[in-house]
Specification:
alpha+beta, 10 helices, 27% helix, 23% strand, elongated
Length: 354
């Protein structure tokens, strides 16, 4: 028998009833039902219920087990009573009666509980990151990230791209943020830089004749944190293509992104009509080159309605070259209360009013 386990905590079902198995994992929780001890044993793959009563030769040892102890158990697989089946887990039809146990690692009182959905301060979660990452939600997030990256790689390979790794220690290059610097051992007083993006290296690949390149690339930027990335580094799908137009790039990457969202979207459908908005139109309609298209409101140019009109503020403004008046549609926004609120907002932004 293997030193630690014959099965994972997600493997067992009714086909294994009567077998002697060995499992290893962490004690998710312990329940004492009148002298019968139930333990939910957890590993990366799932949870199996194991139990022990005074007839077990290791009952006294099992009584001392606490949450998040790492243990190895030997036992006999038994079918659960039909009224006790747990349909929420793959192993819910069986349980394992403990015949032998070895404690692989004891745990002291925990600073945060792994079981349940309690909220903890971020400082606590980061200080005890190894515990935080044991939580079910964090395990799902980490697995999802890994699966998404694997899916992207597979899709890029399928359409003829090759993955190349570019250097991480390099010379400084102008980008959108400050560099992180690394002191040089060979040249005291001089520094390497961590790449903000693999820009120069991938362009070197393209002029060398490699037709299609991609990389799940680390990007190091000394900038303020954002909601969608950490303050020091993030990873991106980086790609280059030779002898193509902008539309070729759009047509290549759209199916990849659609496929990833379909695969991991939980059954959500993907709208295959991707509007392509020119920069000029985006700035005119939304005032930004990265609009949130869930908001259907578009600005419109209304200069012709105010040029030479009796509304002097706008009429005089339009006599100056290069000026125009734009309107933001505000359905149901014609009340005095609404207008006063918008006027106050404009003044808070440093404007004279609205």
């Amino acid at each position: 028998m293997h030193a630690y386990r014959t099965h994972t905590c997600a493997d067992l079902d009714t086909s294994a009833v009567g077998e002697t198995v060995r499992l290893a994992g962490w004690v998710h929780r312990v329940r004492d039902h009148g002298g019968v001890l139930f333990i939910d044993l957890r590993d990366h793959y799932g949870v199996t219920q194991v139990l022990c009563d005074p007839d077990s030769p290791v009952f006294a040892e099992v009584e001392r087990v606490r949450s998040e102890w790492c243990i190895r158990i030997d036992g006999e697989v038994k079918a659960r009573d039909p009224s006790l089946i747990n349909p929420k887990i793959p192993t819910g039809e069986v349980e394992v009666f403990i015949r032998d146990m070895e404690v692989l690692g004891r745990a002291q009182e925990l600073p945060l509980m792994v079981f349940g959905d309690q909220e903890y301060p971020e400082e606590t979660r980061l200080r005890y990151r190894y515990l935080d990452l044991r939580r079910e939600e964090m395990q799902r997030n980490m697995v999802l990230r890994s699966d998404v990256i694997a899916s992207i790689r597979r899709r890029m390979w399928d359409i003829g791209f090759r993955e190349f790794q570019t250097p991480v220690i390099t010379a400084s290059s102008p980008e959108g943020a400050r560099d992180f610097l690394v002191p040089s051992r060979l040249h005291p007083g001089k520094f390497y830089a961590l790449p903000q993006a693999p820009q120069q290296f991938k362009q070197l690949l393209m002029v060398s004749g490699f037709d299609k390149y991609f990389q799940i690339a680390p990007c190091f930027r000394d900038e303020d944190p954002r909601a969608d990335r950490s303050p020091t580094d993030f990873y991106q799908l980086d790609m280059e293509m030779s002898f193509v137009t902008q539309q070729d790039v759009f047509d290549t990457i759209q199916p990849v992104i659609e496929g990833v969202f379909e695969e991991f979207g939980g059954g959500r459908t993907v709208d295959r009509h991707w509007p392509q908005i020119a920069y000029r139109d985006a700035m005119l309609w939304y005032g930004t080159d990265k609009p949130d298209l869930r908001n259907p409101i578009k600005m419109q140019v209304v200069s012709e309605h105010f040029a030479g009109s009796g509304f002097k503020i706008f009429a005089e403004l339009l006599t100056q070259e290069g000026t125009e008046v734009r309107a933001i549609p505000a359905p149901d926004g014609g009340s005095r209360k609404f207008c006063d609120r918008m006027n106050k907002f404009a003044q808070e932004q440093g404007l004279p009013g609205m």
